[in-house]
Amino acid sequence: MKTKFFILALALIIPGSAIFSQSNFSSYYNQNRFGLTSPDAMKYGLYGRVNPALLTYVDQPDFYFAWSDRTGNWYDFNNWGVFAAVPNLSFSAVTEKFKGLVITDYKLSAAIGDRTFSAGLGYGFSAGDDKAFNRSSLFTAGLLFRPFQYLSVGLVGNFPTKLESEAAVDVALRPFGNEWLSVFGDYVYREKESPADIKWSAGASIEALPGVRITGRYYDKDFFNVGAELSFGRFGINTNTHYDADKNHTYNTYGIRIGAYDRNIFKSLFENNNYIKYNLAGPVKYQKYKLFDNSTTLLTLLRSIDAAAADPSINGIAINLSGININKETGWELRERLKQFQYLGKKVVIYIDRPGMDEYHLASVADKIVLDPQGMIMLPGYLMGRSFYKGTLEKLGVGFSELRYFKYKSAVESFSRDSMSTADKEQRQALVDDYYKLAKSDICATRNISYNDFDNLVNEKVVFLPQDALSNKLVDTVGRWDAVGEMVKALEGEYRNYVSPGSLEQFNLPEDNYWGEVPEVAVIYAIGSCAMDDGITARKLVNDVDYAVSNNNIKAIVLRVDSPGGDALASDLIAEALRKAKGKKPVIVSQGYVAASGGYWLSMYGDTIVAAPNTITGSIGVISGWYYNKSLKEYLGISTDFVKAGIHADLGFGFTLPYIPVALPNKDLNEMEKEVFKKSILTMYREFVSKVADGRKIKFDEIGKIAQGRVWSGYAGLNNGLVDKLGGLADAIEIAVSKAGLTDCKFNIVELPEPPLFNFNIFIPKIFGFEIEDNE
Length: 776
Description:
Elements: H1 2-13, H2 28-31, E1 62-68, E2 79-86, E3 89-98, E4 101-113, E5 117-128, E6 138-148, E7 151-160, E8 166-173, E9 181-189, E10 200-209, E11 212-219, E12 224-231, E13 235-243, E14 249-258, E15 274-279, E16 282-285, E17 296-297, H3 298-310, E18 314-320, E19 324-325, H4 328-343, E20 347-352, H5 357-363, E21 368-371, E22 377-378, H6 390-396, E23 398-403, H7 413-416, H8 422-447, H9 451-461, E24 463-464, H10 466-471, E25 477-478, H11 484-492, E26 498-499, E27 520-527, H12 538-550, E28 554-563, H13 568-579, E29 587-596, H14 598-603, E30 608-611, E31 616-618, E32 624-629, H15 632-635, E33 654-657, E34 660-665, H16 671-696, H17 700-706, E35 711-713, H18 714-720, E36 725-726, H19 729-739, E37 748-752
Parallel strand pairs: 15-18, 15-26, 16-17, 16-19, 18-20, 20-21, 21-25, 27-28, 27-37, 28-29, 29-30, 29-31, 30-36
Antiparallel strand pairs: 1-2, 1-14, 2-3, 3-4, 4-5, 5-6, 6-7, 7-8, 8-9, 9-10, 10-11, 11-12, 12-13, 13-14, 22-24, 23-32, 31-35, 33-34
Helix pairs in contact: 3-4, 4-5, 5-8, 12-13, 16-17
């Protein structure tokens, strides 16, 4: 479709170049008189005035004012122009005074397309002494083709209403694939030309330092320009010196730009020592609704920390953890990213009020910890427990048969037993031991506490009021969140300015440093139970996976798994879709808080599996259970009857209650039926182990030794081969980027699936004293 449009536009532009007259309209070179290069060689040209297709690269509102000193005075405003642009739209006006006459050429431009191919239209009209200048209205059509980062081709057709037109082509090359060096040339075609007409120009633009650009441009009439531009973030200035064919200076043009953030020369010369402030009250989620949702997402938080680490104006981070809702695995990921931030010599200050083990584990990374005067710290250790309903079911007259054939697969013990099995206690004890080991190691290292002292704090003191926390070296000072500034002053020796994460330079840089579509890494979220239409919503998610696999611009896939398992069909649907990417692009799996059973099934074909030390992984096994009526039906006075064809047709048949369509089977499975279920479960288990063995490139028997439904921590998973590396989502993305060969390249992250527009639950009236929680 794009190719057809390209050919059609060429057919329209070039034949229209029948007659040319310099006076009838502002021609290609005249429109570009305040530009330092050909339109598409550096930044955005003159915001679509010359080639409107360039407006697809404008990503922030911007304003530019330029003038020339043709009379010899720099403040001569006989020839000036204003140029204003927002994404895909622009307005410009250029005024020229000559022998008492004044003409102003206006232009409105718009563009559509993407970073590879775009098209634009412009409409120009004049005011003032337009009859004296013989001006006419002007239509401009432009195309921009950037197939990859090294090449840009622009086509422009100018069509004045007096039937005089021209066509121009400009080509720019970037040998290094970025803004450091652009070499360009352009050519104008007219059927009727005057001897003074310019046919072509060529030159180069160099940006050796961020925000410092040097340009040179030579014209076929032997005159040339030398220009320079300095950018200071949201403000910039430039000048362009013009020379004639004898190398004599003729005049200068000057420009002032304000609005959009551009690369800043001061960023590379000075450090401002600002601090970023984060208020992390509420949940840290994977995705948030597009509207009416102020939640913090994990990836946004991790990326902003990395951006702050790379920004020379940022010297520290201040974090308010009051009210944070975060699980131990996500907290560990955030903690590790803050450690990376500190490795660069930057500081972290954290405020807490009532943290438990997980929140304090996160806070302990800080260089300085501030505890609220009315706060306290609780360090009770870790526990895993569960409730059992066997007795409840018996009282209700409901029977339950556990179809369990593997030692550690304990998912339905809550209904078949009144306490943990020995195997379940064994695996859960190993998990809490690893949780404790991780927290102990991290806290002792950063707070300079011995292992013995930490054990004593947990086992003998547990609760710490502010003065206790101070005396036991758990915090550095007592104060409210607004006192963090004083702590930063004590740490840095002077007050620091505080800025928001959104102001970081990395999130505001212009899009001109890369031509064409920027390579992407897809982060796909498989969150919740493995199910077809809820949880991971496999029926829909498989389309996102197929899209990521087939899209050539997506160079790598990171699957974030946070799922306790569920339906094997749902898990296998996604796993097989990911398997299609094998050999085509890297597939990296990042395991969150839990990636067990079906969650591990989702993971098993990853080229690299990354888990946190406190991730719950594994549980390679299959289990089922059967509820049936013992006496509940009779107690309720309900009776059932049926006719059937087939011995087992009544399998699963039972009574239902009005408005509750779920049936409670009348009877337990008979021995023959239990054998059928057993065979299917064992067959599914062998398939599960075989698939893991194939995906992990480990022998079937070796996987069998660590399977049997056992869950493992990330620590243990690294040792037994279930995972390849300890780390979090940011680490998984770095591995994906490296394997895709994007380490030294610009790339974007696309998150899938597309988040919903907004949470409909906010419209449910809270008139009954309860609300529906949005729980991932």
